[in-house]
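Consider the following assembly input.
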Amino acid sequence: MSKNKNKWFSLNLNSDTVQQKSSCGCGKTSGGCGSHTPEPQDMTDEAFAEAAINASIGEERVKDGFEQVFDVKMDRRTAFKKLTASLLIGAGAVSTSCSVVAGDESKEKAQIEWEEQFKGNYKLMSNKEKSATVDRLVRSYQLRTGKNINMSSQNAKDDVLFGYAFNISKCQGYMDCVSACVEENNQDRDSQMQYIRIHEMKDGEGLNFNEADDNYYHEVPAEGHFYMGTQCYHCDNPPCVEVCPVQATWREDDGLVVIDYDWCIGCRYCMAACPYDGRRFNWSTPEVPEEEVNKDQHYLGNRMRKKGVMEKCTFCVQRSRAGENPACVEACPTGARIFGNLLDPKSTIRWVLENKKVFRLKEDLGTEPKFWYFMD
Amino acid sequence: MIKVFISLVKDSLDRITHGSKKYHLWMALLTFIMLFGMYCYSIQIREGLSVTGMTDRVSWGLYISNFTFLVGIAAAAVMLVMPTYVLKDIDFKQAVLIGEGIAVAALCMCLAFVVADMGGPAVLWHMIPVIGVFNFPNSMLTWDVLALNGYLFINISIPFYILFRHYQGKEAKKNVYLPGAIISVLWAVSIHLVTAFLYQGLQAKPFWNNALLGPRFLASAFAAGPALIILVLAFIRSHTLFVIPDKTIKKIALVVTIAAQINLIMLVSELFKEFYAPTHHSESAYYLFFGLHGKNALMPWIWTAITLNVTATIMLTFHKLRNNFKVLYISCFMLFIAIWIEKGFGLIIPGFIPGPWGKIAEYSPTWIEIGVTLGIWAMGALIFTMLARTAIAIELGKIRYKKK
């Protein structure tokens, strides 16, 4: 994944890799390799066996066992391919037979789905209920994909209030933050959803958002321009939280404005109420290629979403509550992004707020963003 | 009591399912459009709202536009309720049942449009108090839910009581329905005001965040709603034995005229504020009326609306023209279309353009969206036809309890 540095723009001018939707981990573009079968549980056993045989031995199936193995013309590459495929099928068969009865699994799946459908609002859950739903989601993902994920339900820590500062002088518009954000937070790849927008502004025109371009496709930094990023500002007085009819979005004690994706009804009132373009909606089912899924997740953060719900920047709650910087901060090559605990007098963010001439956007709306801009 | 009710339902079903060839054709057409709408909605359910023209930049579209307009139509039933029940004006008595029928149909359409706009209609139970979380009183949307459902309840129960009594050949008791009627008058004002507050309360959208929005909603609703009622009454008058005197229609026309005039005054005030000393906040209005940076998808719509609106209001203002029923019907139709545009996508879509950071991304509905919208309108027409047919039959004495 590292060599295939993903940029989530429509035009991929500088990228040497062509994005192949149907490409798969094993390098094959057709046939079965195990990790490629879209939804194996939809296949009947016979169909699966058929496909498996086709994949592993193909046209050799009419020959008898000895001929199949020895009387076959193949180069080393195909031989390896077939060997891998057969191994994967074998492993699949073993795991299926070890799971006692498939009926139990589908029963468990139905049970989980039922409980998930009728669970309450995360905001109002006790710690026990929170970990119960997280366990269900982890198990459900395991049942669906056979892969394990890590999901946290860690609450806000005491004496922590997260804040963010953006150095306009430093940002060069590389958009590494955008790519890192998409990869970290499992955003939908199809619609190219991005939490961060980088606005390219002309020198000498001040902070003129109307003339700025938030969708540029050229080499940066462009002559005579400067760059400014916007995202969710995690307001202390967030209008989006007020308007939600079901309290599916709220401000946590450490200042993060979060969403319970399972409680959201998708009315998009919060989107209309946000003055900062901080919120995104899943217009269709979000899709992330299985091998690109970030498996370190938080219930309120980057866990997989479904269609018809809101989502937004959470300052990477799965990272920030674990004591790390958000992905955008870590990815920024220029050091334009600063994140930290506003209540810790020794934090960098406090130093910036105390020593730089900071300002916020649309302060007149009374939203009290926890996102400051400054210049060197 | 229950026996009477069952007999009423039976009789009204009989009434609804039998009629002239034209009537059957009309109902078949509505059913067909509804089925088409349901098919479109099923595509939307399967694929998600991505099949609509809405995006992250313009996140409300045709559905919410129609919802906003129809709340006004529903509220307008009060224009008939008030004089009839409270001011003891006998003239309106026949018209009021029709008005309330329109209100019920409009409210059903409102609720359908809201549900169609939801990303997760399956989890709407999250809004039900006690088993879900109802963010009252913080969210204006919860106020709107209460207002709309309460109004629907009132508008079903009052006419039902009256018709139920008439069905048995008894007079409706005034001391039973009068308190309900008074509440419904107050409630009607509140539903449209609350719906306006839904938009008005957003500091993020300067185009909506203005104190005139609520009053203008009311003025335009009290023009468009009774205009529709006049058209419906005209149809009923010419196609059934139901007697609606000229005097009634003329009185409603007066209501329409005054509301349309007030609406026009408010429009002038709004335009003056936006364009005499334009600020950063006038950009949405600029986009709506003149287009911004060469993007002007709404311009033809809004100028059509303004032209229709002004012409209709002028025509209504002259007594001679207004008292000529042909002119009256034409101007009512013009006014209805004008306000549908103005209070629909002329209000909702420019709120999102330009976006919070000045981005101008235009919106145009897809065919699926239009299909669902048509389906919901057909549903409203169907509900109204059924209600009106029963009500007229009872009022004419064609169906009575224990009378074959």
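Chain B has one domain: 2-395. Ask yourself how this observation constrains the way the partners meet.
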